[in-house]
Amino acid sequence: MPVLEVNHLHKTFGAVTAVEDISFSVEAGEIFTIIGPNGAGKTTTLEMIEGLQTPDRGSVAFGSLDWKRNADQIKMTIGVQPQSGALFDLLSVEENLDLFASFYPKATPTATVLEMINMTDQRNKHVKKLSGGQRQRLAIGLAMINDPTVIFLDEPTTGLDPQARRNIWDIILKLKGLGKTTILTTHYMEEAEKLSDRVCIVDQGKIVSLDTPAALIDRLTKEREVRLSLMDGEKAAEVTEQMALLHPAVVRANREGPTLKIWTTQPEETLYDLFGFTKDRGFRVEQISIREMSLEDVFIAFTGKEWRD
Ligand SMILES: Nc1ncnc2c1ncn2[C@@H]1O[C@H](COP(=O)(O)OP(=O)(O)OP(=O)(O)O)[C@@H](O)[C@H]1O
Question: Pfam families, per this entry (predicted)?
């Protein structure tokens, strides 16, 4: 049974349709990511699921629990990362955790949470002195304080530098290791691709596509770009290009000086045959790479829009 089921959610604000018929379900232990451009409806969707906004239509169920009948039980089951402004600046990291823990009948020991978010050494630091990344880590710690089974993180890495983002990824993966379910929103494709079991691409309030990152990429195309650099100059590359174009799996090719780019539906086979050819001719291969399609390529294909972080 899914831990979360979202059915036909709708939400409008005046003339703006923020969410239009969003449905999905999330299994226990998954990292489920909602990704989309600014204004796509990610936060509104998340807030309806978290019980912070009431949908105009549609339903949200956590197992057999729903917001109308079981609000108190749901609040014990889920953890919501507070907005960074909801932290108490004049209290220390530990005091913030203790304060949030006091809201619940059963809380995870503060020391455990501090260790999970890698902030044991900063536990006595005042929140106003924390960096952006540390504030976000504390916010995730606060979402964990009631030992929830489902954790909601709304853009936990937006605006952070690459190292701080990676530190947050480590925490999210640790949560997965503990068997927690995480629902994440992000602007960053790379993050969605690295962390998620499944990705839901949202645009203009609707789901454009939903699947595992690998399946989304696969569904788009089986083509891979193979790059081959030859040590024997342009002429050797030209002959190799002509040969490559005769291969049944090769869709197209182009050449810049001694470097060949070949798009093929069977990269391993194409490479094997090309190596046979270059060896026969005595051409030496200097460099070789196979480029995978990225989730970014998928987004552009499904929405027709360029992706901007
Ligand atoms: N309280 C509100 N009142 C009016 N319009 C709103 C409100 N909340 C959201 N909207 C509008 O609904 C649409 C979806 O907003 P939402 O914040 O859910 O998108 P998002 O995908 O989370 O965007 P971002 O990545 O910028 O946070 C936007 O057009 C937004 O302006």
Answer: ABC_tran
Please state the atom number of ligand 1 nearest to the C-alpha of residue 36: 21
Provide Rg for the chain, Cα atoms.
Answer: 24
What is the ipTM, given to two decimal places? 0.96
The two tokens of residue 44 are 């509104």
What SS3 state is found at 283?
A: coil
In angstroms, rounded to a whole number, what is the distance separating the alpha carbons of residues 167 and 178? 17
Nearest CA among 307, 257, 266 for reference residue 290: 266
pLDDT at 48 over 80: yes
Q: Is 18 in the pocket of ligand 1 (CB under 6 A)?
A: yes
H helical segments located in 178-232: 189-195, 213-220
Q: Does residue 198's CB lie within 6 angstroms of at least one atom of ligand 1?
A: no
129's CB contacts (< 8 A; 6+ apart) are none
Pairing assessment for the beta strands 206-211 and 259-264 based on DSSP bridges: unpaired
CB of 13 closer than 6 A to ligand 1?
yes
Report, in this order, helix, strand and coil percent for the chain, each rounded to 5: 40, 30, 30
Between 251 and 174, whose confidence is greater? 174
Q: Please report where in the chains the tokens 């068997």 appear, as a residue.
A: 179
How far is Cα 221 from Cα 214, in angstroms, rounded to an integer?
Answer: 11
Rounded to two decimals, the pTM is: 0.77
Length, in residues, of the chain: 309
